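Session log. Operator J.P. requested a structure for one protein chain; no other inputs attached. Running the standard single-chain path with token output.
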Amino acid sequence: MTRILFITATRIGDAILSSGLLDHVLRTHPDPRVTIACGPLAAPLFRAVPGLERVIVMTKKKGGGHWFDLWRQTVTQRWDIVIDLRESATSWFLLAGKRHVKRNWPGDGAPVHRVEEAAAFLGISPAPSPVLWLDDLARARARALMPDAPVLALAPAAAARFKEWAPERFAGLALALTGPDGALAGAHVAIFGGPGDKATARAVTSQLDPERTHDFTGQLDVLEAGACLSRAALFVGNDSGLMHMAAAAGTPTLGLFGPTDERVYGPWGRQTATVRAGGQADERTRDRLKTSETGLLADLELAPVLAAADNLIRQESAA
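Structure written below.
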């Protein structure tokens, strides 16, 4: 038996990007038993992980109290492997046979994708692709909800306003792709998002045929959403956790970026692509833009997104 403590991200997208690393460790060690520590948003992602013993939900507290809570819950166990992607001091105060604590990327400053960075952290090459572990309950929910027809999945909202493409552009894309001359002619449209994204979803669905439109915004848990996305013909969305989830599920995925850097946060998978708005990405602007109420993808026209979506659909058909 190999006891593993895996400390990963708070945000859904970052947790998904690290999932390939966890999958590799589970597949390359005998009889793995894993405890996963992560934030509350990401926690449901891991409920179907093979060999799972426990998910420790780390709710942020003042003064780093959540790290002390994690130490209290893990200090009595001797771990064969501790993998800490959060660069915390807690990992150094645990009994561990092997200890891997992430440090700042030592490269030359060139952008490195988070999946490649995680792989290099453990010296793994090639980088293992993200994984979405689905359970029977999530799959059953997806079978009940998703129509028995091709589905275009859209996620028009994001965690920050500056990362969102305009709702009317998403609606225009859906009409073009599912219309009589579209690459997904006759397909249904499914909208995905969290409870706080309902207004954005309504701005899209109000422009579409209600008979072929399904708004799942705020109605699904994380794994249910992932199971639904795994049944879609194509996903198009902003830089978000749902984008990474669709790619990990193996769905052809198109991510829309600006100003976040697709070289670092782009969807990872066999059938993925990105379209960038504006000039070169600059991650240094992220803190300044956190409170912006103005979407910075306003200059991204429909045509390049439609062309990229058409290309992904053709690639999938040819595969």
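Operator note: Residues 302-318 form the longest helix (17 residues).
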